[in-house]
Write a structure and sequence with these properties.
single chain, about 140 residues, mainly alpha, 2 domains, 7 helices, flat
């Protein structure tokens, strides 16, 4: 999705719409509406305003931006894990690697790979990457400050 369309939609889906979002962002509702208007060339949402809006709206604009550049995003879980939680995460990571292998095995079974099979492989690989980054973040959170 186009990033500008995504931020426009996210702002309009915000509870109370653009008017309520403008109050949270300390902007005039009309100015924010103009900046969100994809046809406007005179009023443009700045990077700082985009970042500020992401504190309040869903993160579909951020995902759209990442996708436009060939990236996928996931939220890292925060918190202080105990040893058992870290072990559970490691075991889950091993299991998710197995899911990637299973998807590849299924895709190769008939000698050709279909687009839906590539989608399934990508989804399984994304899960592995997310799980690995979450594990690293949780371990980093264990460092005493």
């Amino acid at each position: 999705m186009n990033v500008l369309d995504a931020i426009y939609n996210a702002a309009h889906k915000y509870p109370g719409g653009v008017e309520a979002l403008a109050v949270r962002m300390e902007r005039s509702p009309q100015l924010l509406r103009n900046k969100l208007n994809t046809n406007s060339t005179s009023n443009v949402l700045s990077l700082q305003e985009f970042d500020q809006a992401l504190h309040y709206v869903d993160h579909s604009p951020l995902h759209a931006l990442a996708a436009n550049h060939g990236y996928a995003l996931f939220k890292l879980e925060a918190g202080q894990p105990c040893d058992v939680e870290v072990l559970e995460m490691v075991v889950g990571l091993v299991a998710s690697h197995g899911r990637v292998g299973a998807e590849i095995y299924k895709a190769l079974a008939d000698g050709r790979i279909e687009p839906n099979e590539v989608t399934a492989i990508k989804a399984a690989a994304f899960d592995v990457h997310r799980d690995l980054q979450t594990l690293v973040a949780r371990i980093a959170a264990m460092v005493e400050k």
